[in-house]
Specification:
The complex is a heterodimer of chains A (272) and B (329). Chain A is mainly α. Chain A is built from ten helices and no strands. The two termini of chain B are 38 Å apart. The chains are: A mainly alpha (272), B alpha/beta (329).
């Protein structure tokens, strides 16, 4: 029998830089996500893409919708893809890991503070949200044809809105994934997330709700409103939209709020 | 010398479990908090193979959980390698490897990736980790499954993957929580030889088990724990010497055994006797000689003897005398 050729445990587990551990954690999530990318994109972008087909392609051709509607629709569809991908990338794995498989335990034993492991999950969800948005943008443009007023001149602003929107929803995903039992995740998506999409100013601009003031102010509690309006401000600035500074401040506040509660919830699940 | 592990008056109380789905009239029944550790004092020396023996619910897993930074103690102190666990969890994690009670490989990764990523979480570059992972997989007998999904491994192989994972970052202290539960006898023996080898290399090993034989075979010292308390802590030989009165004779009677205790104690050579329901246990240094006398004593009290068991002085009899219950109960 050969001996176990492992060095005797004399070394004093040298200190590891947290950045390096963080990079390894992120590399793991990226590798797993890359492997599941087709299924992931299908799951998170099929619904918005079908929406584009019906409301951005079919109805305008039937004459039920004006062509100009596509300018309101595209930023909203991007927002939905971004937010839903970010939230789903985190919620489901978290819920299953903590409640059932305990697979995350090997990462919880990594020599970094526990909160850093939670932050890594948020960052990994952000990346997946951004990938989905990047996938949907050209596809939406392709399906809908030329979109009046669409400009990529404010690329920095688009990126900023996308990053903050992904962060807010990824942090929300962490909160939901650590606070909701896996059996209730499906229920939660139907009851919380689906209304969020339809009342998130995704398929119509917020200013359009001037016609129905009750709804106009009620939807302000919906975080998706700010992602969609931010996308409008950056991508189709000619259309009515919320002021970009308001959007950015709200997204920062939401990210901080969801992040703080989500991190606490993660910690509670991680340390018994 | 600094202890590898030290706990002082370690306490853990879990909040009362919520009972879901319990509805109906009447006031809600308040359930008491669960006391898992009730002032546990342990000291494990560097390089020691240390066993924690106790029935399910004794507090073994909670103790491991606290020492491995995954459970927060309610009170007391816990140190690994002199490092206070609660204050410096990151320092502790760097020094330890953990084999969990149930295998929990990262199922999104294949077998060798499980090892390489775990090493990466400890800052070990791939060039160093890969040969190390290779050696571990070969030695543990699943090198042919390196690129397989973890689901393709048998239960025993998954367990060995957990051991490889716990070793790939070369920790000083290895914790194993009931590592042989669910293994077939051959796999268990293989694991034992592996653990002996790790121990021979100078690692500190802390293992929980509720198999008496396992603790006896492997451990330098054994802590017997029950209901969150340390009942005994000694070498295996020392513990065996403490077993009361040598042999334990257990008579299964056809009725309550407590009536017979006095009669049994009156017999010459019985050092201790106790009733556990219908079972009468007598401890004696005279081996099986007392069986006829005990049967007569039971029958004199109107009890028939249904079964007789004889247990030689062992950790098992010590455990029963300390806790009043059997390990697998």
């Amino acid at each position: 029998m050969s001996t176990l050729a492992i060095d005797a445990p004399a070394r004093d587990g040298a200190a590891v830089s947290p950045a390096r551990v963080f990079a390894a954690l992120l590399r793991r999530d990226v590798r797993v996500a890359a492997r599941e990318l087709p299924a992931f994109l299908l799951r998170t972008t099929l619904q918005p893409v079908m929406f584009v087909v019906v409301f951005g392609y079919l109805l305008p051709r039937m004459g039920f919708m004006s062509r100009g509607y596509t300018s309101a629709l595209l930023p909203g569809v991007l927002a939905v893809s971004l937010a839903m991908s970010a939230i789903q990338a985190v919620t489901l794995p978290m819920a299953i890991d903590f409640a059932a498989t305990k697979e995350i335990e090997d990462r919880l034993l990594a020599p970094v503070p526990t909160w850093l492991i939670a932050v890594e999950k948020i960052v990994s969800g952000m990346i997946q949200g951004l990938v989905s948005a990047l996938f949907v943008l050209p596809l939406g443009r392709l399906i809908m044809g030329p979109i009046p007023g669409l400009t990529l001149a404010h690329g920095g602003e688009v990126l900023l809105v996308a990053l903050l929107g992904a962060a807010a929803f990824s942090a929300l995903g962490l909160l939901l994934g650590t606070a909701v039992a896996p059996q209730q995740v499906g229920m939660m998506f139907s009851v919380i997330v689906a209304p969020m999409i339809f009342f998130g100013c995704t398929y119509y601009p917020w200013r359009g709700l001037d016609a129905v003031p009750v709804v106009k102010y009620a939807v302000l509690i919906n975080p998706l409103v700010y992602v969609a309006e931010g996308m409008r401000a950056a991508l189709t600035p000619g259309m009515p939209h919320m002021p970009l500074p308001v959007v950015l401040v709200m997204l920062v506040v939401l990210t901080a709020g969801f992040g703080a509660v989500g991190l606490r919830s993660f910690y509670r699940r991680a340390i018994g | 010398m600094q202890a590898a592990i030290e706990t002082v008056d370690l306490r853990k109380t879990y909040p009362a479990p919520k009972i879901p789905g319990r509805r109906g009239p009447g006031p809600a029944q308040p359930t008491p908090d669960v006391l898992a550790l009730d002032g546990l004092d342990l000291r494990v020396e560097p390089g020691e193979f240390f066993g924690m023996l106790g029935p399910n619910g004794a507090g073994k897993t909670t103790t491991i959980g606290i020492l491995t930074t995954r459970v927060r103690a309610t009170g007391g102190q816990a140190r690994v390698d002199g490092v206070e666990v609660h204050a410096h969890p990151v320092e502790v994690r760097r020094r330890i490897g953990v084999v969990p009670q149930r295998p929990n490989p990262d199922r999104a990764l294949n077998v060798v990736e499980n090892l390489l990523f775990h090493a990466a979480y400890f800052g070990i570059p791939r060039a160093v980790a890969l040969p190390r992972a290779q050696t571990l997989m070969e030695r543990l007998g699943f090198a042919d499954k390196a690129l397989a999904k973890t689901d393709a491994l048998s239960g025993g192989q998954q367990q060995r993957l957990m051991i490889a994972r716990a070793l790939v970052h070369e920790p000083r202290v290895v914790f194993l929580d009931e590592p042989t539960v669910g293994l077939d006898p051959a796999a268990r023996l293989e694991l034992w030889s592996l653990l002996r080898e790790l121990h021979a290399q100078g690692r500190t090993i802390v293992m929980t088990t509720h198999y008496m034989e396992e603790a006896d075979q492997l451990c330098d010292r054994i802590a017997i724990i029950d209901r969150g308390k340390l009942l005994a802590l000694d070498t295996t030989a020392g513990l065996r010497a403490r077993a009361p009165g040598g042999t334990m004779i257990e008579l299964a009677l056809d009725g309550d055994a407590s009536d017979v205790v006095d009669a049994a104690l009156a017999l010459e050579g019985v050092e201790r006797a106790e009733a556990r329901g219908n079972a009468l246990r007598a401890f004696t240094p005279r081996g099986g000689d007392l069986i006829p006398a005990l049967i007569t004593a039971a029958e004199a009290r109107g009890r028939a003897v249904k079964d007789i068991q004889l247990a030689r002085p062992s950790l098992e009899t010590l455990f029963i005398s300390l806790t009043g219950r059997k390990l697998d109960a």
